[in-house]
Design a protein that fits this description.
Spore Coat Polysaccharide Biosynthesis Protein SpsA, Chain A; 411 residues; alpha/beta; 16% strand; seven-stranded mixed sheet; 2 domains; three-stranded antiparallel sheet
């Protein structure tokens, strides 16, 4: 029989979700080893006493100069960008390996996946099996920005092509795995649009019971028949991906969508409420109260998101070759202090998202007034060129010339 393992990746604050995934996976695959790659500062006495569960700290993955990547990428980016490395590490020991995002719950055996991996090198699922362009989010426009396939799930089988794919994917993730959709980058996910052309053994699984989530609920209805979850009354439910899920408001479906109003999907709500109960049952203060370790210098000063981007661009140009950029006595910290990029020790900056725009209505109004004045001054053609340039430098990585630091030879 083939040896199969499953793995998820998360920081400590997401550990409750990872445990719900683990328990649901082992319920339907009791003989499969399960791994959690913990993307966080290593805590020596942090353990999880679960039979069949093994923890791997991200810094123990075979990633050269890991701390430089931990400084380059934020929590979401680093969690996704170590995924290919984790899969390849396990593929050296197992015949097939499945990756599942921590916010997934398994409802029935994934036999359709394992059968596909008998002949496929890699299996993925699309965000949607059918087109949708109704002015709601997410739709085809969003899939163009963030990728055709959802990489919260991927399966690989031990073969040369799978290893080649993982090497290719890892190289791109660790070099360009930024969340900058305005520049066409969406962490690990969007690269796999290209993989379909480069790796002929990659197979797309269109089973409607796989990866059910807010991005495909427009085409999938859930039901319970004799205790078995079903999709569209015909396909057994394999797993739901509770991405962007708020356990305190399970009827809201997900925060990153506006297609379904709260209470508009009574078929989905029982699954969501039960998932919320499972999360609360395993939640622990040692999970939710843990601050992400790589958000801080070694002395506790917060690493500003802007500093990460400037560091990423300048490191590529040969600056900051130090092994540990978190060192408060190092050149990265000196650069941050010189350029006003250091938060005080203990400070935590709120992570911004598109929902926060509503808090800046006055500022946005003033900016638009300013842009209208600039349009009047420049005229339509030069104004158009200016807007294209602003789109380019909306990535802080494209602004480092303002620091006047000469390019050096890479060490």
């Amino acid at each position: 029989m083939k040896k199969t393992a499953a793995v998820t990746i998360c920081s400590i604050n997401y550990m409750a979700k990872a445990l719900v995934l683990f328990e649901s996976y082992r319920l339907h695959h009791p003989g499969h080893p399960f791994y959690i790659v913990v993307v966080d500062r290593k805590i020596p006495d942090f353990t999880l006493d679960r039979t069949g569960l093994t923890l791997i700290w991200a810094e123990d993955l075979p990633i050269k100069d890991f701390l430089q990547y931990a400084f380059t990428f934020d929590i979401i980016e680093l969690n996704t960008n170590v995924k290919p490395t984790a899969l390849k590490l396990l593929l050296a020991e197992y015949d097939t390996v499945l990756y599942l995002d921590p916010d997934i719950q398994i409802f029935s055996p994934l036999d359709v996946v394992f059968k596909a991996l008998d002949s496929a090198s890699v299996v993925v699922t699309p965000h949607s099996n059918n087109p949708v362009l109704d002015g709601k989010k997410p739709d085809d426009l969003e899939f163009l920005r963030f990728g055709a396939f959802n990489l919260g799930f991927i399966g690989v089988s031990r073969c040369q092509e799978a290893n080649d794919f993982l090497d290719w994917w890892s190289e791109r993730c660790l070099k360009y795995g930024f969340y900058e959709p305005q520049l066409g980058l969406a962490v690990d996910q969007k690269w796999v649009n290209l993989a379909l052309s480069y790796f002929p053994g990659l197979t797309v699984l269109r089973d409607a019971g796989l990866n059910v989530a807010f991005w495909n609920l427009h085409e999938r209805r859930l039901s319970l028949e004799n205790g078995q979850g079903m999709v569209n009354g015909t396909v057994p439910l394999k797993f739901i991906h509770f991405s962007s899920f708020d356990s305190s408001a399970p009827d809201n479906i997900a925060q990153k969508q506006n297609r379904f109003l709260p209470g508009s999907r009574p078929d989905f709500e029982p699954f969501a409420r039960e998932y919320a109960k499972k999360l609360f049952a395993v939640e622990s203060s040692k999970f939710v109260d843990n601050n992400y370790g790589f958000d801080y210098f070694d002395d506790g000063a917060y690493v500003a998101p802007a500093l990460r981007r400037f560091y990423a661009a300048l490191r590529v140009k040969g600056h900051f070759p130090m092994k540990n950029p978190f060192d408060p006595g190092g050149s990265v910290r000196a650069f941050a202090a010189k350029n006003g990029l250091v938060h005080k020790v203990g400070a935590v900056a709120k992570r911004q998202n598109f929902h926060d725009l509503g808090a800046y209505k006055k500022q946005i109004y003033l900016l638009l007034k300013m842009f209208r004045f600039v349009l009047f001054l420049l005229g339509p053609n030069r104004y158009f060129a200016l807007m294209r340039y602003l789109a380019h430098i909306s990535s802080l990585r494209n602004q480092v010339e303002m620091f006047g630091m000469a390019t050096q030879e890479n060490p």
